[in-house]
Design a protein that fits this description.
The structure is a single chain. The chain is an alpha+beta fold and about 350 residues long. The protein folds into 2 domains: about 230 residues, Rossmann fold; about 120 residues, Nucleic acid-binding proteins (OB fold (Dihydrolipoamide Acetyltransferase, E2P), Beta Barrel). It is about 25% helix and about 35% strand. It contains 8 helices and 20 strands. The strands form 4 sheets. It has a 6-stranded mixed beta sheet with strand order 6-7-8-3-9-10, sandwiched between helices. A 5-stranded mixed barrel has the order 11-12-13-20-14. The chain has a 5-stranded antiparallel beta sheet with strand order 15-19-16-17-18, with no helix packed on it. A hairpin with a 2-residue loop joins strand 9 and strand 10. Helix 3 packs across helix 4. The longest helix has 18 residues. The radius of gyration is 25 Å and the shape is globular.
Length: about 350
């Protein structure tokens, strides 16, 4: 498969500050690749280097096999969409989309044909004569994408483009962007701090922390098989304990957690007896009032502190006895637990393969 974007050992320094630290990855043609991380992790610095707004301190960036060092942004086969779409309000939709083509001095007939075709591709046929303020937020988003796609870039770079939208529209646009990228076939490189955006839309996701990639993987593997504690915390919700290995080994280990309880869990790495570890369990991994006949379950009682109702994402906020630690426990949507109230004492359990632990630190 052809590689549209290749980044090799790219580093970016601002004085003594190391913003991007020897990052390497490649994006195959037609893929949706996301870079996910908290504010300040270096993802925007990396995107700006790909776009050509700044140069790496070291390392190489190539597009379709051609190194782009020293090539200015307007001559690179990439386009960049920011959170603020920067559409021209005094121009019509068609004029906005045609702007880049006019600067290329293409013929009027060619411009009109390209504008018409790209509006059909983004689901806005017949909108060329509309004013920007006549469009919804989602439609304006599609116009901004169309304005870039009409220039036929090899790679489209998107810098948190949904950040300015309200929650409901943002949820809708995640699906729209996923469908649009699959339809047009252009390679997308998308940066965000919102894990839901990255997981829903992407073929592969890089989780970035302190200038480095912690894990590059499919959304499913990032969620179910995190390779570092940072990825386990950052991708999805997780309950975390500090503990000590009491029976080590490969695959499964026995851990003593606060309260003197011992549990068994899968381990990301071989762990020796006495090692300090961090243990992570997803809210949906807990079983409420589990069947006593189910083997290989870690079990303990909890006190329900609150019911956090959020439809399909409802949770119990609970605490084990004699612990200040609070646990998030997913509520199945069977309604069999509608009777549970704050102050109730219930037993919970989780399968030993549902947790994952890492060496502490």
């Amino acid at each position: 498969m052809a590689i549209d974007l290749e980044v090799r050992q790219v580093t970016k320094r601002f004085g003594d500050f190391l913003a991007v630290d020897e990052v390497s990855f490649e994006v195959p043609q037609g893929h949706f690749f996301s870079i996910l991380g908290p504010s300040g992790c270096g993802k925007t610095s990396l995107l700006r280097m790909i776009a050509g707004f700044s140069e790496p301190s070291s390392g190489t960036i190539a597009i379709r096999g051609t190194p782009v060092a020293g090539i200015p942004p307007n001559r690179r086969p990439v386009n960049l969409i920011f959170q603020h779409l920067a559409l021209f309000p005094m121009m019509t939709v068609g004029q906005n989309i045609a702007f880049g083509l006019q600067r290329r001095r293409e013929s009027r007939a060619a411009i009109d044909a390209k504008v018409r075709r790209i509006l059909e591709r983004v689901g806005l046929p017949g909108s060329a004569d509309k004013r920007i303020d006549q469009l919804s937020g989602g439609q304006q988003q599609r116009v901004a994408i169309a304005r870039c796609l009409v220039l036929d870039p090899t790679v489209l770079l998107l810098d948190e483009p949904l950040g300015a939208l309200d929650l409901k529209l943002r949820e809708q646009m995640k699906v729209e962007l996923k469908k649009l990228q699959a339809q047009v076939g252009t390679t997308f490189v998308y940066i965000t701090h919102d894990q839901s955006e990255a997981l829903v839309m992407s073929d592969r996701v890089a989780v970035m922390n302190r200038g480095r990639f912690e894990q590059v993987d499919t959304p499913q593997n990032l969620y179910h098989q995190p390779r570092t504690p940072f990825v386990a915390r950052f991708v999805g919700e997780n309950n975390a304990w500090s503990g000590t290995v009491r029976a080590g080994g490969e695959g499964l280990v026995e851990i003593e957690i606060p309260g003197g309880r011992r549990v068994r869990s899968a381990a990301a790495l071989p762990l020796a007896t006495g090692a300090a570890v961090e243990l992570f369990i997803r809210p949906e991994a807990f079983l409420i009032q589990p069947d006593p006949g189910l083997p290989q379950l870690n079990r303990f009682p909890v006190m329900v502190k609150a019911l956090l109702f959020d439809g399909a994402n409802s949770r119990l906020l609970a605490a084990p006895p004699d612990e200040s630690r609070e646990l998030l426990i997913a509520l199945p949507q069977t309604r069999q637990y509608d009777h549970i109230r704050a102050g109730d004492r219930v037993e919970v359990g989780w399968h030993e393969q549902s947790g994952i632990c890492f060496p502490a630190g």
